[in-house]
Amino acid sequence: MSNPFFETWTTPFGLPPFGLPPFDRIQAEHFPPAFDHGMAESIAEIAAITGNPDAPTFANTIEAMERSGRFLNRVGGVFWNLNSSNTTDALETIARDYAPKFAQHSMRIALDPALFARVADLYERRGTLDLAPDQLRLLERQHLGFVRSGALLPPDAKARMTAITERLATLHTLFGQNVLHDEKDWQLVLEESDLAGLPDFARNAAAQAARERGQEGKYVITLARSSVEPFLTFSARRDLRQVAYEAWIRRGEHEGEHDNRPLIREIVALRTEQAKLMGYASYADFKLDDSMAKDTSAVERLLLQVWGPAKEKAAAERAELQDCARAEGMNEPIAPWDWRYYAEKVRQAKYDIDEAEVKPYFVLENMVRAAFDTAGRLFGLAFTERPDLPVYHPDVRVYEVTEKDGRHVGLFLHDNFARSSKRSGAWMSSYRDQENFDGAVSPIIVNNNNFSKGEPTLLSFDDAETLFHEFGHFLHGCLSNVRYPSQSGTSVRRDFVELPSQIYEHWLAVPETLSTYARHHQTGEPIPQDLLRRLLAARNFNQGFGTVEYTAAALLDLEFHTRSDAADTDVAAFERSVLDKIGMPAEIAVRHRPTHFQHLFAGSGYAAGYYAYLWAEVLDADGFEAFLETGNPFDPDLAAKLKTIYSSGDTRDPMELYTAFRGREPRIEALLKHRGLTQSLGDA
Ligand SMILES: [Zn+2]
Question: 466 C-alpha to center of ligand 1: Å?
Fold first, then answer.
């Protein structure tokens, strides 16, 4: 039987080294032999580098490394994307089997003494090698990568680093699979008579979810944020809100085989051990040493700077909600499952604005068009749908991205809808990264969202912001214009990677975007000016709640990872003690509780790094302010400077890139203003 991974892909855009995957032909059983072949091939490629009798040069070592592992990357790109977006039992099994093998494989290369000796030799001589700036940075970062993997450690410590990395890979995989299991497993099946308070869009989405789950004629609420959040916002049934809420916050927290608590215990203990082997007091110290923030205290300072004002604002919000609840005859204190419900009522009363009145103007198709056209105005890109290309699920839409003159830039896959085979959240990923090393390679980027499908699909303002956010990440991958694959697109420091995504959100709220693209799904009429004005005025509303739920999660992350002794953590007790310590308001839940905090425990990318969103928000709020200062949100000169941030990948230092765009270092004032936290900013 033929295996597409061992063939030349004849799909269009099959530019070297490979093109759009032939999704229609790829089966789960094709992955294991391709993985095995890919790992063996990249080990052979590394052996050829270390076996080279010539003295190390940038070309025969660093560039040769950039050329290695391409086959494995191609297979892995397809696999990890499908496993996140459209998984099956077969793919999940392969993920569990191969996670430790890949970890071992990458550690084998990262701790190869002969390879490190060549890199270290070049690093010592880097000032004499006559390297271009991108090459010098590549060498420095490759060297640092080896050091941070443990290349300078004695042999027994190296062996332990490898064992820890392997075990963590397995634990991360299991953690994510457990969350997906709980989200798939749970549903709240409702009858027509249970829907009090739900507007049409939420009823339609619940009916659609019921159809997909074989419950035709009923209504289903799932634990996808896009399903449960509207339910908590609108359902007049306090009892059902409580049921949905409690299931939502208990994902991963229950006895049995899908319990994430023991996994967290082991993960944090291993990370702490890893940090100590590397000579750091805590995992956060280790992690933040290679970040834009540089150290734990800088992160703490930022989080605490917003925590006090955010709590004050939330307390004021709570008082308003309580008044509203009392007026409606609810005399108990506001509970976490009440917050969204009464917040919506207060929002309606205060700003005369109703989510159900707004949503008909936010048609998914139009918001996609808005994101495309904004990229056209700012960066000169054009998008053409290519329904002829193969996809992995009928909901996925493929677009060719070109310059306005027709020059090919890349491919964009848009996968917008929630389904039980997709992990929750929203994210960008790539099937192929841009590079110009051995010839130009164009990027193939995917955006995943988890919108509730409808006829038509209507978004909340928050959903539309998420769409723009991920689209900003897509642009970071797509506008990438670098030489080397490992410097491509989003391969920047984690606390810089959210700048391109978050700054893009601002263009959604620009009045001319909304008055052009926010059109009623039945009449096609643009959103009335008066409604638009009220919508924008309401944007600071409930920001106390939003800032508290996020910042508490970021502080929790930091607390988990700043301990110097993490053995035998009682996860629930630890969570409780941290929330008590920071004075978490009882009516607000942390945005992600530990047992489903995938940023922290389904991988290590955002571990001790959840603060990155707020860190980047300082940059995006300050950066967008630059456009407002010109009086033109599409100012061409500034857009050209911003494009440099999107196209530079990791070829330059992030602060240097930012200051080149802004003309100075970032300031926090715009963030505080944007979140409506300025008035209450005291001496925090
Ligand atoms: Zn993001």
Answer: 9
